[in-house]
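Onboarding guide, step 5: your first structure request.
Type a short instruction followed by the sequence, for example:

Predict the 3D structure of this protein.
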Amino acid sequence: MAPLVGIARLAAESPSLEAKRQTEYFELPTRRYIARCDSPRMPFRWMINPYRGCEFGCKYCYARYTHEFMELRDTEAFERKIFVKHFDPAAFRKELRALPRGEAIAIGTATDPYQPAERKFRLTRSLLEILAQNAGYRIGLITKSDLIARDIDIFREIIRRNYLTLVLTITTLDRELARLIEPLAPRPDLRLNAVRKLSAAGLRVSVNLAPIMPLINDSEPSLESVAKAAASAGAIQLSGHVVFLKPCAQKAFFPFLQEHFPNYLRRYRERFEKNAYLTGNYPDMIEERIDRIRRRYGLGKREDPAAEPELWPQDPQLTLFS
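The system replies with structure tokens like these:
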């Protein structure tokens, strides 16, 4: 067997921080906290993921491939072996200083920044505290957890000098369905309550319908119920996209279908085994459906960065909670 190199070697050498009945946490040496995103599909250039792996165990998760970089190829390893990045505040500040003013930074693009590990290790909060000391960035954070409301004080400080959008993913209001597809994520009503708290605090909140799964949560009544609840809770934007299933996601999603939606399995295999992304009329139909629902409830689309307001100038004298 060839010796491990790079991130795989670092993962193998990571010390265990804590073990629960089904989950083990490791401390991962970290060279960089801010990664560059070159995908034309994404509206941001930089991304931060405080954790590797995610305990929520969403059956459709596209990020499972990131554990394969560490030679952890078991389907369940992504949700059972969670890596907490070793945090060096000085190194993170240095990376931030290297970013030009006005850059877009997305937090939680691969793994949830408010997954259960955050309650104990508070890495996301540590990163946010330093972001709050800086000015002039366009920051977006996405999560499925109501734990986000814990950090309202930090978000209020961030919006003094940055443009911040907080996104709660709510795929369905059906609690039983949500528990099947997102086994350890907080219930939809808890996420809506977080939307309500964040909005009441004067923060910009968006609700994300993604992923929209054919035959599972794609009906207009299902999508509209989320939009209506989101608008009532104070969200100002609604977004969503059709599910895509890379091979790493298919390993978890197809067995899930076999168990809970066996009549759909053949059609999903036919459409996703050769191409991770759906093409044809279906994505256009879903986009039109979301547009109608947005208009019905006065919700906006995700912003065009070019249309966002000018940002505050950098001030090297800024201090947290000044």
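Each response can be followed by summary notes, for example: The chain has a mean pLDDT of 87.
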